[in-house]
Amino acid sequence: MTVARIVFPPLSHVGWGALKHLVPEVKRLGAKQILVITDPMLEKIGLVEQVTSPLRQAGYSVHVYTDVVPEPPLATGEKAVAFARDGEFDLVIGVGGGSALDLAKLAAVLAVHDGSVADYLNLTGTRALEKKGLPKILIPTTSGTGSEVTNISVLSLETTKDVVTHDYLLADVAIVDPQLTVSVPPRVTAATGIDALTHAVEAYVSVNASPTSDGLAIAAMRLISRSLRKAVENGTDKQARTDMANGSYLAGLAFFNAGVAGVHALAYPLGGQFHIAHGESNAVLLPYVMGYIRQSCTKRMADILNALGGNSSFLSEVEASYRCVEELERIVADVGIPKTLGEFGIPESALESLTKDAVQQKRLLARSPLPLLEADIRAIYEAALAGTIVEPNQE
């Protein structure tokens, strides 16, 4: 029997009002000079002040760094690392969505390393991380990326994405407070929510799935499926926001331990070439990838259907797997995310370059229950462009 490697961050505070644990944790970590990395919009709307104000009142020196953009390119990562190296910081706090949290992780670790960020990239880097770096506290303000509990920092390259990944990137403390997500607008709520759902779904069908990751993934799917539509419709719904925060957190733990696969592999080039938000890239591809690999994991897709609120009791596994794909399509449509690549302005002429870049995501593709070769990837992109679910050897 395969032995699963299970890793969790050292400490998490999860729940409404969890931000109250920030100052005690900073004190425990012995910090004095704090670098807060966050999105400029969050600073503008006053959300960052909820983090910095109690720290300053407690006597800590706080510097807020806001050179953060969605889907951060390599150059943005290089800037954040250079800033962290030049300062005399002894703690990094990331506040925001996945982009801010990923940059915070990167800056904290590479602040004590030599060389460029490019030297440490998964696909092309030649150097290995050797030191843990500065302590880091990660505080998500969206319910989706799971970045607060993973060891990955994602960066956009010219036409695709790559990652820096190592357990040194794990947070020392994750603070998941759904109260911080109330102001997230509906479209972002939808995109990040489907991102979290994708994490859970892909973790559950991953070849690296284990009983531990399965439990996390199923619980995440149940929470997200019952609350995402409500959170999109009414951002002030406390229960929906709490469910989404918990669901995103559990999905993050699930995919960190089991991995994501085809959906993410094909989504990376959409972000790299067309700058489509990561959550929306996953959302538009989710039904098409799952429909394509359906035959390789029918039992697991029947389980997913049940977790999404369906009922497979009177269906065969095959029938339930088809119903699962339909339910995934329905969820994406219900939260207002476009159904096809064409609706995102992606032309048929781009399919060749998208396929070429997706094939390079071998780290992700290796986890798919159905091996996805170049022809398969092309077929899925074509299906997503046409808006028609296809399966292998089916036009």
What does this structure look like?
The protein is an alpha/beta fold. The protein folds into 2 domains: 12-181, Rossmann fold (3-Layer(aba) Sandwich), CATH 3.40.50; 186-386, Up-down Bundle (Dehydroquinate synthase-like, alpha domain). The protein is 49% helix and 10% strand. It has helices spanning 22-29, 40-44, 49-57, 74-86, 98-110, 186-205, 211-233, 238-258, 262-274, 278-293, 298-307, 317-334, 351-359, 362-365, 374-386, and strands at residues 12-14, 33-38, 61-65, 91-96, 136-140, 152-156, 161-165, 173-176. The strands form 2 sheets. A 6-stranded parallel beta sheet has the order 1-8-5-4-2-3, sandwiched between helices. Strands 6-7 form a two-stranded antiparallel ribbon. Helix 6 packs antiparallel against helix 7 (211-233), helix 6 runs parallel beside helix 10 and helix 13 crosses helix 15. Belongs to the iron-containing alcohol dehydrogenase family. GO terms for molecular function: alcohol dehydrogenase (NAD+) activity; long-chain-alcohol dehydrogenase activity; metal ion binding.
Look up the CATH topology of the largest domain.
Dehydroquinate synthase-like, alpha domain
Please indicate the count of domains.
Answer: 2
State the distance separating the first and last CA atoms: 38 Å
How many E strands?
8
| SSE sequence, one letter per element | EHEHHEHEHEEEEHHHHHHHHHH
Instruction: Specify the number of helices.
Output: 15
Shape: globular
Task: Record the strand order, biggest sheet.
Answer: 1-8-5-4-2-3
Oligomer: single chain
For the record, the CATH architecture of the largest domain stands as: Up-down Bundle
Radius of gyration: 20 Å
Q: Helices and strands: which structural class? A: alpha/beta
The largest sheet is: 6 strands, parallel
The CATH homologous superfamily of the largest domain is termed: Dehydroquinate synthase-like - alpha domain
The CATH class of the largest domain: Mainly Alpha
β-strand percent reads: 5-15%
Note poorly predicted spans: none
Helix proportion range: 40-55%
Which whole number gives the mean pLDDT?
A: 95
Family: Belongs to the iron-containing alcohol dehydrogenase family.
Catalytic activity: a long-chain primary fatty alcohol + 2 NAD(+) + H2O = a long-chain fatty acid + 2 NADH + 3 H(+)
Protein name: long-chain-alcohol dehydrogenase
Keywords: NAD, Oxidoreductase
